């Protein structure tokens, strides 16, 4: 099968598609100040909660596309999802440049989010398929381009907007460069079927491997409603109660109804926390570090630069500790970094704390995907899509909550609130590590 496709070209094209995704994350972190309150130097005068709402579709749109892609990719084929990503990115980039209020910003982020979701839905299983003997390492290398793109976007924001005073719309226009290249690289290429299909695992077998698909989809729907304010909780802690309820109800479906393993729902729940620890914090970096005496965009570049380097060299660490050991260490460093950031104000200590945080969140996303690809391979593309979708919908849910905490209290309280998530993860991954530290990955 390998002779029928160009593995290198597919991998490079996948990386550039993820680069487009990551650039949009860096751009939102910078554009937050452009759309923010006039008193803070903004142009459009939106509140932080309104900006969190307008940014939300980038995450829940991501979730919708990713989950739908997971269910449909083996039916419509990977190639269709690849080109859906390209055209949704194209429309989203144009809409982003034209945004002028919270409604148009909201619309732009819908297309961007859907495009980003299609990237994850298509390319995670593609990487797992073409590198089936080295999944976690290659997924980490693929995901180098997520922090790598944020580094690039952050530095360009600092140079173009902060230093040279270039218009924000020209800055957004950078998206069209990697977009055009990855479109070219995939043009006319043959793309293999997913590993699940080529291994003969049935569609029902894939559903059963996820343990509790009905509960997981229902919980993501509720989180989506919370993200777009159709449902709203008065207290921030109630959002954590939702995550706890997911564990209980999915256990009932997995163990009593489907009579299968609970491991996928557990990883799904952990993904809600790992993704929010990383992405809610970095998406609000401009506001969280506005009084720290350092450039927030340079700090974002530092954090994501460390992440990019760490992911590129992840192979040795993963083989030494196994994926769960890596996730446990990541949780410890993430908690230390966030709580340190909430307590320091000297620029040097802010930098040190940011480095600790960066080391912590480096391996979260790709190693979570790698664990599922290696230890629950029968879940196929759906498993990877549900996991990534869980991460993004949780970020969409927590973004406005974080904005509200900052407006009602301050940045320190907001950081301490998000710091509760990696503390929960330390306990969860410690228990999981005791079970999985000597287990070998499952082969199809």
State the main characteristics.
mainly alpha, globular, 444 residues, Growth Hormone, Chain: A
Structure description:
The protein is built from 22 helices and no strands. The mean pLDDT is 87. The protein has one domain: MFS general substrate transporter like domains (Growth Hormone, Chain: A), CATH 1.20.1250.20. By secondary structure, it is mostly helical.
Number of strands: 0
Stated plainly, the CATH topology is called Growth Hormone, Chain: A
**Beta-strand level of the residues, as a percent range?**
under 5%
What is the C-level CATH assignment? Mainly Alpha
Tell me, briefly, the overall form: globular
Class based on secondary structure composition and strand pairing: mainly alpha
CATH architecture: Up-down Bundle
Q: Helix count, per DSSP?
A: 22
Largest sheet: number of strands, sense, barrel closure:
none
Integer average pLDDT: 87
Within CATH, the superfamily carries the name MFS general substrate transporter like domains
Low-confidence stretches: none
């Amino acid at each position: 099968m390998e002779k029928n496709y160009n593995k290198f070209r597919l991998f490079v094209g996948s990386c550039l598609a993820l680069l487009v995704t990551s650039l949009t994350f860096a751009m939102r972190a910078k554009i937050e100040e452009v759309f923010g309150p006039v008193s803070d130097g903004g142009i459009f005068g939106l509140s932080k909660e309104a900006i969190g709402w307008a940014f939300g579709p980038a995450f829940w749109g991501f979730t919708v596309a990713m989950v739908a892609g997971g269910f449909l990719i083996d039916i419509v084929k990977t190639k269709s999802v690849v080109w859906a990503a390209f055209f949704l990115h194209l429309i989203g980039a144009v809409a982003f440049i034209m945004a002028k209020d919270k409604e148009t910003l909201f619309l732009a982020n819908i297309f961007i989010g859907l495009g980003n979701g299609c990237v994850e839905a298509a390319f995670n299983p593609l990487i797992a398929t073409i590198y089936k003997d080295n999944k976690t390492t290659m997924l980490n290398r693929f995901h180098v381009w997520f922090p790598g793109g944020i580094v690039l976007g952050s530095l360009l924001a600092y140079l173009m907007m902060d230093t040279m005073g270039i218009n924000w719309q020209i800055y957004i226009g950078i998206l069209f460069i990697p977009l055009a290249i990855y479109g070219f690289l995939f043009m006319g290429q043959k793309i293999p079927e997913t590993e699940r299909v080529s291994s003969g695992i049935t569609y029902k077998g894939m559903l059963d491997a996820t343990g509790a698909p009905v509960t997981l989809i229902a919980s993501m729907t509720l989180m989506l409603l919370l993200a777009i304010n159709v449902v709203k909780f008065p207290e921030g802690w109630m959002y954590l109660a939702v995550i706890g309820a997911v564990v209980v109800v999915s256990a009932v479906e997995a163990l009593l109804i489907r009579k299968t393993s609970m491991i996928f729902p557990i990883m799904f729940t952990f993904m809600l926390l790992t993704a929010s620890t990383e992405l809610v914090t970095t998406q609000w970096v401009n506001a969280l570090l506005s009084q720290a005496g350092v450039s927030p965009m340079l700090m974002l570049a530092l954090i994501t630069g460390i992440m990019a380097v760490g992911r590129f060299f992840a192979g040795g660490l993963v083989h030494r500790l196994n994926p769960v050991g890596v996730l446990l260490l990541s949780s410890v460093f993430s908690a230390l970094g966030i709580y340190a950031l909430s307590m320091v104000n000297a620029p040097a200590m802010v930098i040190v704390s940011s480095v600790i945080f960066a080391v912590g969140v480096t391996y979260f996303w790709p190693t979570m995907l790698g664990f599922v690809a290696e230890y629950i391979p029968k879940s196929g593309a759906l498993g990877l899509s549900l996991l990534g979708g869980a991460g993004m919908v949780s970020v969409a849910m927590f973004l406005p909550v974080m904005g509200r905490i900052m407006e009602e209290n301050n940045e320190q309280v907001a950081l301490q609130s998000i710091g509760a998530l990696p503390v929960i993860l330390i306990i969860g991954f410690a228990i999981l590590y005791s079970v999985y530290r000597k287990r070998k990955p499952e082969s199809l």
